[in-house]
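Why do we care about 3D structure at all? Because function follows from shape, and shape follows, mostly, from sequence. That is the central idea of this module. The next example makes it concrete: a single protein chain, its amino acid sequence, and then its structure expressed as tokens.
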Amino acid sequence: MSKQSFKIAGKDYSSRLLVGTGKYEDEEIAVEAIQASGAEIVTVAVRRIELDSKKRADCILNYISPKKFTILPNTAGCFNAKDAIRVAKLGREILSDSNLVKLEVLSDPKSLLPVMDETLVAAKELVKDGFEVMVYCTDNLDYAMKLEDLGCVAVMPLAAPIGSGLGIVNPNAISQIVKKLSCPVLVDAGIGTASEVSQAMELGCDGVLLNTAIARAKNPVLMAEAMKDAAISGRKAFLAGRIPKIDKGSPSSPTEGRINS
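And the structure:
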């Protein structure tokens, strides 16, 4: 496995960028942007999927093939553990018994912040039921560690509220989670532009999941390409190791053996 690739739930992926499917003007643009992003994992809100496959004329699942992408059902729009568990099970049925799920349990429809007590309840039940849970959470280290202890296959702290485009509001908290956890850590939600993807990767995150930043860009396909490049360059910078920060200048030219004026 190359240094650019990583593993989730026992499967190797060459792209560390994960993308969503909502908020696009139409499915054609969505598919073109998803392809341009280079993402291999694409998340779909179960509540947006038409249950009757014969009526899915405009469903994104008609345009992205499970043979090419890992389809990651998510429980977006759930506000308690009971609903999230039910929607996760429904997603597994719709998507041919896939155990991989992105768990979201939100506090309210406006803030879209995760409610962690309910998230823990749902995560515990889903793991027990055989799900491979990737979980959206706050940037609180204690909660992140509890989710890993429950057996979640990836912990996904928010950079900022969903769709806000604020970028990584608390990089120190994200950095602490990365250092403490053994399972993959992916930044999820709040990313607005490519430099913020690079920042997440430079912090040591294993990946970034985003949607709005691409879907609502003036040119979604071009932004998707930028996000792809940012994930790659940010990972390379992390592996290369940045120079330490100092509070004074340091000459880049040698001071010994120089010509004196």
